[in-house]
Specification:
The chain has eight helices and 13 strands. The chain has 320 residues and is of the alpha/beta class. It has one domain (3-315): Protocatechuate 3,4-Dioxygenase, subunit A (Sandwich).
C-alpha cells in the first residue's frame, strides 16, 4: 500500500487541531490526542506518564545535550539486548519536542525552531543559490525562495542552509538500502544580501515505522502514525544562533495531528501553483511544465537574543 493510500484511510475529523505547539500547551495537546484510546487503564497510564515526564523536563530545565545522553544510553541498552541478555528493545522519546522547545526558544520576531528528526545526514552537496537538490524523477517541481534577515530586518551575509526532504513517494534518501549519494537534500549558499533560492520537489507526508514497539504503542492509543508533508532546513551564519526548523504544507490533512507534535502555525505555508510552463525553465527546471513555489523569509536571532528568550521561558516555569 502506498503512503497516499494509507493516509487516505485515516480519519482526522475527530482529532484536535494541533498546529501551534508551545511549551505552555504541548502537554495538554498530547493528553487530548491520546484521549481517543479506548482502554481506560491504558489511557490513564499514558496520561500520567506524559504529565510526569513533561513536568520533569520543566523542573530540571533539561538541556538537549542531557536529553541526548539519556537517549544514547537507552539506545545502546537496546542494541545489546538479546534473548540471553535482557536490556530493553526500543524506547520512545516522547518529550523530545518539549526539550527542543525549551532549549531553542527564540525572541518573538525570530523564526521558530522545530525538531531535527532522524533523517539528517552530513554528506549533502554544496549548492549555490538557485541550484537544485533533487533528480528529475523524484517528484513534482517545487521552487523554494526567500530571504534571511536579522531581527531588525537586515539581510544576513554568509548564510548556509542545509535542507532535506522526502521524494514524491514520501521517502528520504537514507531509507533506500541502495543509496549511493545525497538525494533531495543539499547545502545551499545564500547570496551576500541574504536571499536564497533552490529547486526541489513537493514533499509528501509519511508514516513513522509502525512495525516496532513505538508504532504499536501509538496504535494502542488509537492514534495514527503520520507526519504532515514538510521540508527541513538548518540555517547557519556567523554571529547568529543555528536555526533548525521545518516548513509544513497547510493543505496536508495531518497538519493538526502530527504524530510527533512538531508543527507550529508560523511554520505552516501555502504553495503557489505556477501555471506558466516557461517559468519553470526560467528557474532552471529541465522541463517546461507547471510547478509549485514556496516563499519563506527566515529571521535569525543572535546568541544574546536567544539566551534572553530562554531565560524568560525558564523564569516562567517552562510554560510561557
Amino acid at each position: 500500500m502506498s503512503q497516499a493510500d494509507a493516509a487516505a484511510q485515516v480519519d482526522t475529523s475527530k482529532l484536535p487541531n494541533v498546529t501551534d505547539v508551545t511549551a505552555a500547551n504541548i502537554t495538554e495537546y498530547v493528553h487530548q490526542v491520546n484521549a481517543s484510546c479506548p482502554d481506560d487503564r491504558t489511557r490513564f497510564i499514558f496520561k500520567s506518564m506524559v504529565q510526569h515526564l513533561h513536568d520533569f523536563v520543566r523542573e530540571t530545565s533539561l538541556t538537549s545535550e542531557e536529553w541526548m545522553t539519556a537517549v544514547k544510553f537507552l539506545t545502546d541498552t537496546g542494541k545489546i539486548s538479546t534473548d540471553l541478555r535482557s536490556g530493553g528493545p526500543e524506547f520512545l522519546h516522547r518529550a523530545s519536542t518539549l526539550v527542543d522547545i525549551l532549549n531553542n526558544a527564540k525572541p518573538p520576531n525570530a523564526t521558530e525552531a522545530t525538531v531535527l528528526g532522524p533523517f539528517f545526514t552530513d554528506d549533502a552537496h554544496d549548492i549555490e543559490s538557485g541550484g537544485g537538490i533533487a533528480s528529475e524523477d523524484k517528484g513534482d517541481y517545487m521552487y523554494v525562495y526567500g530571504k534571511v534577515t536579522d531581527t531588525k530586518g537586515n539581510g544576513i551575509p554568509g548564510v548556509v542552509i542545509e535542507t532535506w526532504e522526502t521524494d514524491g513517494n514520501g521517502l528520504y534518501d537514507n531509507q533506500d538500502p541502495n543509496r549511493d549519494g545525497p538525494e533531495c537534500r543539499g547545502r545551499i549558499h545564500a547570496k551576500p544580501d541574504g536571499t536564497y533560492s533552490y529547486r526541489a520537489v513537493v514533499p509528501v507526508g509519511y508514516s513513522i515505522p509502525g512495525d516496532g514497539p513505538v508504532g504499536r504503542m501509538v496504535q494502542v492509543l488509537n492514534r495514527h502514525t503520520f507526519r504532515p508533508a514538510h521540508i527541513h532546513m538548518m540555517l547557519k551564519a556567523k554571529g547568529y544562533e543555528t536555526l533548525t526548523t521545518a516548513l509544513y504544507l497547510k493543505t496536508d490533512k495531518f497538519l493538526g495531528s502530527d504524530v510527533v507534535f512538531g508543527v507550529k502555525s508560523s511554520l505552516a505555508v501555502d504553495l503557489e501553483y505556477v501555471k506558466d510552463p516557461k517559468a519553470a525553465l526560467s528557474r532552471g527546471f529541465p522541463q517546461a511544465r507547471p510547478h509549485h513555489a514556496l516563499h519563506y523569509d527566515f529571521v535569525l536571532a543572535t546568541p544574546e537574543e536567544g539566551a534572553n528568550a530562554r531565560e524568560k521561558l525558564t523564569l516562567a516555569g517552562g510554560k510561557a
